[in-house]
Design goal:
mainly alpha, 80 residues, Serine Threonine Protein Phosphatase 5, Tetratricopeptide repeat
Length: 80
């Protein structure tokens, strides 16, 4: 777990904070937190991933759609 969490800041330094690869790492971290039952920790992370995907890839991109579905799952089906 620790290596995955540390990897995101390194990716941000290498690629920039709004790079889609950073969003993928964030999505993975949110999924990890969710699998551990740490819902409140997952919420802001998946929110940031969705924002990056929307800004960089557009709202119809498969990554954006998938991350948004996770966002809705984590937030109890609420619309963003």
């Amino acid at each position: 777990m620790g290596l995955t969490i540390l990897r995101s800041p390194l990716r941000e330094q290498q690629l920039g904070a709004d790079h889609p690869s950073v969003a993928i790492s964030l999505w993975n971290i949110a999924a990890l937190y969710l699998s551990m039952g740490r819902l409140e920790d997952a919420k802001p992370i998946i929110t940031r991933a969705v924002q990056i995907f929307e800004q960089r890839l557009g709202s119809d991109h498969p990554y954006t759609v998938g991350a948004r579905q996770w966002w809705q799952k984590i937030h109890g089906g609420a619309a963003e």
